[in-house]
Automatic annotation (TrEMBL):
Organism in which the protein naturally occurs: Strigops habroptila
Flavoprotein recorded as keyword: no
Biased composition (Polar residues): 339-350
Gene encoding the protein: P2RY2
Bilayer disposition of the protein: Multi-pass membrane protein
Any single biological process term in GO: blood vessel diameter maintenance
This protein's name: P2Y purinoceptor 2
SUPFAM superfamilies assigned to the protein according to its UniProt record, in alphabetical order: Family A G protein-coupled receptor-like
Record keywords: Cell membrane, Disulfide bond, G-protein coupled receptor, Membrane, Receptor, Transducer, Transmembrane, Transmembrane helix
GO function terms (MF aspect): A1 adenosine receptor binding; G protein-coupled purinergic nucleotide receptor activity; G protein-coupled UTP receptor activity
Sequence similarity: Belongs to the G-protein coupled receptor 1 family.
UniProt key word Cell membrane: yes
Annotated TM spans: 43-64, 76-98, 118-139, 160-181, 201-226, 247-267
Segments of this protein annotated with the region Disordered: 339-358
Amino acid sequence: MADLTTPSAWTSLINSSLDPSIADDNGYKCIFDEDFKYVLLPVSYGIVCVVGLFLNLLSLYLFIFRIKTWNASTTYMFNLAVSDTLYVVSLPLLVYYYAMEDNWPFSVGLCKIVRFLFYTNLYCSILFLLCISIHRFLGICFPLKSLQWGHVRYARRVSVIVWVVTVVCQSPVLFFVTTSVNRDAITCHDTSSKDLFGQFVIYSSVMLVLLFCIPFLIIIICYCLMARRLLQPTRGMSRLSRSKKKSVKMIIIVLMVFIVCFLPFHVTRTLYYSFRSWDLSCQTLNAINLAYKLTRPLASTNSCLDPILYFLVGQRFMKFAGSKVPGKPPNEMALGIVPNSQLENSNDTDTLSKDVKS
């Protein structure tokens, strides 16, 4: 049992809650002052729900009703929007749960589904961002190969594979996640029961490597090679063209969004799970518990940032609501980009394709 002699700044016996996952799973009896999360999580999840639902429904409307012919990037972005929408519609349950101070009045099945949707959206977002990044990489660095591998039919097959892989990999969450009675309340854990916690940590570690570390490494490599290509001087031009500058900015923006949304969550979650398995002081446990709770809303904000990326990547995205946009800027060929119009004869498709690759 852990020593309870911790500074009052870290623990509180008044208006505090015993962290059920730590107390039940590992025998720690540290009392944490978690009042902050009963304000932070409902407010943050509520904002993500409202903003994310509006932006993703708007994006789905444009994808379905305004874009007549899709290209590879459109396909990946549409699937990303579907994933985000499925997640944000589950957030009202979490808003109510945390507003009621960790009291889950719904069924065990709903608890499992809500946690499952969180992780499914998390890793679907990562994998579809990976697909978009590879598609851009091929268009800039290997434009001839992108004619073949950038075809929409391949993007559809890859999208199906992403969904299948993510659902299969996250299906154990439905087995691990459970509820437990804590005093007069029912807690909806995002981990597992005490006897399965060791297996859950192993499972989470495997998912960390397969669905976060490897895709993140590939994205970094692709963007480094893209930046190297874009920063090369173009014959007859002493400065970076406008399109090249925009492409470099987009690389930086996507990487920053990826790092802000996904990296802090995975780091703090890994530390949180590891520290729960060790007999550490209440100070240390409370610090990592605080960090983990703070990064969970960050991971959810990708549902709001993904639709914004659609507009940043394709500045003419909203023009799909109007007439067709005329053709290709002359400096695009300087980027080594072969337009998808050679594959799909649609001005609508070319517009989004150019913006995505530029």
